[in-house]
Amino acid sequence: MMKKIILYILLVISAFFMFAPILYALSVSFMSAGDVNNAALLPSEPTFQGYQEASTRIPLVRFLFNSFLIAVSVMIGQIFLCSLAAFAFVFIPFKGRKVLFILLLSTMLIPFESTIVPNHVTILNLGWLDTFQALIVPTLVTPFGVFLLRQHFLTMPKELWDAAQMDGCSYFRYYLSFALPLSKTILGALSIFAFISTWNSYLWPLIMTSNDNVRPIQIGLKMLVSSQASTNWPIVMAGSIIALLPTLLILFFGLKYIREGLLSGSVKG
């Protein structure tokens, strides 16, 4: 009993330190500039002025819509394309399958920064600057997504695949009728990873866009930070809290999928 009490106390303390920056940002979003200058922990007179000014200084709703559109598009694309690639690596025999998979995994070792220039040149030649395609297409397939789904497909009973073949089931029918329905947990985990990573992306959208009509919310938050005058931090924190809410909600409701999804592919290699 005492061990459980100590464990819960340590968990509560750890959770507090993890959420302390978010809680302070939430507190600052309701403060006045004077409270911030006085290093107050709580607002003396809570106000929604920071949220009101954040929505007037930048096209906040437009930025949120852009981020949602980009994140959902990337999420759907990764679910479909990564699952197709993983299915081919597991169920379709072809020469060089293992070598090709190793080459695919090796691309995870390439730093993102080293791919910016060639990807930018490709987008420029396609005429996709300041378009949603530039923010969506390059991340529709990721080696991590293919690896995650391949490991899960390897855990599926081989007898099910043999029985489906005996009944004349085609590859694509097996993919739609068996592989995907039996992969809801891992697909949920991949969806959450794809959505959050795309929602929080900053450097690539900054390079690819100069038009507010296609820019995501992360660029909008940077626009709230003044480079010449003193920054009004309640406004910045208000925008940050608004941008953080979707990811927090997804993590809260999808934590089960992340936990079960990461464990589901750990049986076979």
UniProtKB/TrEMBL annotation:
Query: Example GO biological process term?
Result: transmembrane transport
Note the SUPFAM superfamilies from the entry.
MetI-like
Which cellular component appears as one GO term in the record?
A: plasma membrane
- Domain ABC transmembrane type-1, first and last residues per copy: 64-254
- Superkingdom of the source? Bacteria
User: Transmembrane stretches, by residue range?
Assistant: 68-92, 99-117, 132-153, 174-196, 233-255
Kindly give the InterPro entries that the UniProt entry links to this protein.
Answer: MetI-like, MetI-like_sf
Alphabetically list the UniProt keywords: Cell membrane, Membrane, Transmembrane, Transmembrane helix, Transport
Compartments (UniProt record)? Cell membrane
**Bilayer topology annotation:** Multi-pass membrane protein
Q: Which family does it belong to?
A: Belongs to the binding-protein-dependent transport system permease family.
Protein name as catalogued:
Glycerol-3-phosphate ABC transporter permease
What organism is listed for this UniProt entry?
Answer: Lentibacillus kapialis
